[in-house]
Amino acid sequence: MLIFIPGLVYLFTTLFLIIFRSKFLIFITLILFLAYFGALNISKISLDYEVYNSYFNSLSNISFIEVLSYPDPLFWLFAKFFNFIFGGEDFFNYFFIIFLSVFLKIFIANNNVEKFLIPIFLYLIFSRYLILHDYTQIRASIAIGINTLIFLDFINKGKISKFNVFLLISTCFIHFSSVVFLPLYFIYNRISSDKSLLFLLYLLIVSIIFGQFFSSIFQTLLEYFSWLNRLNVYLGSSSEGADQIKAYSIFQFYFLFKSFVLLLLFKGYKSFSKTDRILTSIFIIAMCIQAAFVFNSAIGLRLASLFGYIDILVFLFPLKYKFYNKIHQIYYLLLLLVGGVFMYSSFNLIENI
User: Which of 56, 80, 203, 301 is least enclosed by beta carbons within 10 angstroms?
Assistant: First the structure.
């Protein structure tokens, strides 16, 4: 059943958007269903179940102060709170954190996607990230969701509130990878200029050349950081690292599909709004990172997923602008097929379902 969930989400959302004007009923039903299903079957569908379970079990035996010594302490403080309220029941622990993870994706859709594109957006984002993020890398999922919302609000308003600055810093203690978002605010003026597209395309070419021909140098440099536990498991020099690299073969498909979409975007770029031009810049920056790490698909995919929700938004641009009217139908069908590939690949990562 799991592999069909994104398709069911798509059909359910499409049907209810046609019948009802209010999106609240649709969204709350989806969130509750996906959170309930995930919490009920978490031991079968989460690749990190054993890791999270050991942490959850330990939370009952330590104080709130001791939780601060855990990696990503803010996440575990919230988990400790739920653990305290519900007596350490696994189902409730997972239900609420999955609920929050899914809610953030729905919130992105509700506030940043045109109504007629919401079904395909949810289909794509859950095809790619339901298992990988909402049911496995839950800390990263919550941090990425919050950071994506903050950045979208920033580029829409042209400024960032003090509360969002607080949230931005806080996400680094939900998942440390959030620090990758921080440079975006410093290079904002650069990537929002009219000349940014050409510059980033050149940067992408350089990144591809670097990744293909100078990867051994980069790999050697990474070895100096092997003392970082989180990085060491993604290095090819370790047995765990080698396994991780083999596990993420979809990296090549994802990069090639993004390259195809980029060609389409280049043709209609002048008709884009300023917000969508900036998102296109982030889309290319993510490709540059992937290209530079092409020798290590585990790191490449992990870095790519940080901007993954923005990627999905950008995938919709050819459906959003009239410039692409002639290809709307065939491109829509292509996205449906791509979503199927995403989900099938995620499904193959799971054992004993």
Answer: 203
| CA pair distance 257, 287, nearest whole angstrom | 11
Q: What is the 3-state secondary structure (H, E, C) of 85-132?
A: HCCCCHHHHHHHHHHHHHHHHHHHHHHHCCHHHHHHHHHHHHHHHHHH
- Buried b or exposed e, range 129-163, using 16+ CB within 10 angstroms: bbbbbbbbbbbbbbbbbbbbbbbbebbeeeebeee
Q: Is the pLDDT of residue 20 over 60?
A: yes
Taking CA atoms, 215 is separated from 207, 229, 241, 304, in Å, by 10, 21, 16, 18
CA dihedral 152, 96, 39, 180 (to 10 degrees): 40
Structure token pair of residue 312: 């999905």
Which residue matches tokens 């995919």?
301
Q: What is the pLDDT of residue 185?
A: 92
Give CA–CA dist 36/193, Å, rounded. Answer: 44
pTM over 0.70: yes
Give whole-number Cα distances, 198 to 188, 205, 276, 284, in Å.
16, 11, 16, 11
pLDDT at 298: 66
Q: Is 51 exposed, middle or buried (0-12, 13-18, 19+ CB in 10 A)?
A: exposed
Residue type, 190: R
> pLDDT digit string (tens) for 129-139?
999 899 999 99
Contact 60, 88 (CB under 8 A): yes
Residue 248 has what pLDDT?
A: 39
90, 91, 92, 97: CA torsion to nearest 10: 90
CA 9, 14, 15, 16 dihedral sign is positive
Residue 291 is given by DSSP the state H
